[in-house]
What does this fold into?
Amino acid sequence: METPENEVFRDSIGTINEDGKRNWLYPKKPTGKFYDYRKWVSYGLLAFLLAAPFIKINGNQFIMMNVLERRFNIFGFPFWPQDFHLFVIMMIIGVVFVIFFTVAFGRIFCGWMCPQTIFMEMVFRRIEYWIEGDRGKQIRLDKQKWDAEKIRKKGTKWFIFAVISFIIANVFLAYLIGSDQLFKYIKDGPLAHLSTLLSLIIFTAVFYFVFAWFREQVCIIACPYGRLQGVLLDDKSIIVAYDHKRGEKEEGRALFKKNEDRAATGKGDCIDCGQCVQVCPTGIDIRNGTQLECVNCTACIDACDQIMEKVDLPKGLIRYASEDNITKGNKFEWTPRLKGYVAVLAILLGIFSGMMLLRNDVEARVLRLPGSLYEHKGEDVISNVYTYKLVNKTIVSIDDIHFKLLSHKGDINLVKNQGFSIAKEGLAEGTLFIELETGAIKGDKERVEIGIYSGDDLIETTTTSFLGPRSYK
Ligand code: SF4
Ligand code: SF4
It folds into this structure.
């Protein structure tokens, strides 16, 4: 099917030319109200991103994503492999929250909070502007032959990019393996941990590749969230949008003539200056309508507002607006779809809070030894053998641990002595026997409840099954 004329722009992306080669973008340096707001939000988030793995709360790293050991700390709260279900629910809550926000406010996350945008636009791009100058100067420099000036500017830029990529890689590693571990490796010297050093070099190379070369392609080609826009956005979503009704009017957009009375000419308010295209970091023309490539960075809003000011027309030709707002003048409304997301979020948050309240500092598991049967010990006692596993999720050691039967009269005998300790964030495993008097057994398989004590304090309870002969039913 042939693409309609007004949709032809969707057949290609701004970063690939007709020969299929990379079309390098030189976005003009944005200035304006939104850019200033974004700068402050970005600095705050950058400070948070760089500091979070080095801050500790009650001895726990503020944020840690140790995927290899399946240990995660969120806002200083530790999640163990045993808490993985909690972590998964939290991730689902995060995804529903992002979907809800996207349906309501479009890709606001991409423009204001995404680490890719923040590092690209507020760190690497700003260094580029500082060393190479704005759009025009960058284009000239790239066309220029490799003379001393070009070597100096490009060399300085690439060196600084590499240093920053190395710093980001170290912070990334601190998120992955924990900052304590990272400091230990630094102290031991890089050659003492060659595999970690190799990971660090690979991360540095990846970050350098992304920010020095791949750039906006991450948002356009690689990011799965960007691809979801088509199904998440609707005419009520508030996005960075061009007011096509006002911009085009009956006569369409046209260049501005000095002292003209624009309203009387029937021409649209868009003076076709191209500034919104020149500032766009993904190389699109917002006047074509909502596009997958738009990361809602607001640079075109600032650029257009400045032009409107110069030609004495009202600002907001490009603004945060929904399609319904532009075509029908509708304000934001709580649609059934949004209400549905809020309801799902509330349910998930309720489940998560309940599970957090029920979560213990100690995780205990007592399981019958696979394949084992009960044993008679003398005339009146039946014994079953078990393995146990205790996890101390706290950052202090737990001492004088012993087991007691809570549901039946009987004994618990450990192969090693009761009264042992588990180190902070440690694990204790072993074998134990549960012995019940035959009079206390009501069936051939029943649940027994076990209390785990530290001194006199009951710190956890767990249940397991106890086998006995059928005749005791
Ligand atoms: S910056 Fe505004 S006036 Fe200029 S081309 Fe873009 S929409 Fe039209
Ligand atoms: S169209 Fe505007 S908001 Fe979207 S990426 Fe380009 S400059 Fe940013």
Residues 129 and 204 are 22 Å apart (CA to CA). The radius of gyration is 32 Å.
